[in-house]
Amino acid sequence: MVLRRIVFFLALVLGVVASQLPEFAQQYRQRPGGAVDELNRIIQDFDADAARMQLDRDAGLDRLLASSDMFVRQRGQQIRDDAARAARLERQLQSYQEAGPVWRLATFARSYEPEIARRAAQNFEPAVPVTTEGILTTVIGFLVGWLGGRAVIAPIQRRRRRIRIERA
User: Fold this and answer.
1) Residue 88 has what pLDDT?
2) Which CA distances in Å does 159 have to 5, 8, 146, 167?
3) Is residue 130 part of a domain?
4) Which domain holds residue 54?
């Protein structure tokens, strides 16, 4: 009887923890938009500098990357990396918008950026799961905890029953 209560309690805890996954994913989804805005500002500044020299972005980057000065080459590579990251994050945001409520979690699991997720986790604030995703993950978390706990205690219960039968 005590083991069943422990399993129920653990399942309840896992359900509550799982219910926070959609909220974390939602808080994460807010961050790439800000990152894209900032990266685009940096890239637009570079594009404006290149245009003043009658260059497009690619020509400006080629010029930086061909420089004999290591600092200048690194700056060119940084701008190129920033442009690639902005494009990647914009695709990620688009995929979130196109995904349905439950599929957003799958999209998050498949394409999150570790650095953004780490920062989101540092500022994460739990919330009550009133969305379809929140309720679904709560139920799944509870069932996984309950079934996992039952699987762990099943051998103990069988052994106890066998001992009681042998004593009777």
Assistant:
1) 92
2) 18, 20, 20, 12
3) yes
4) 32-116
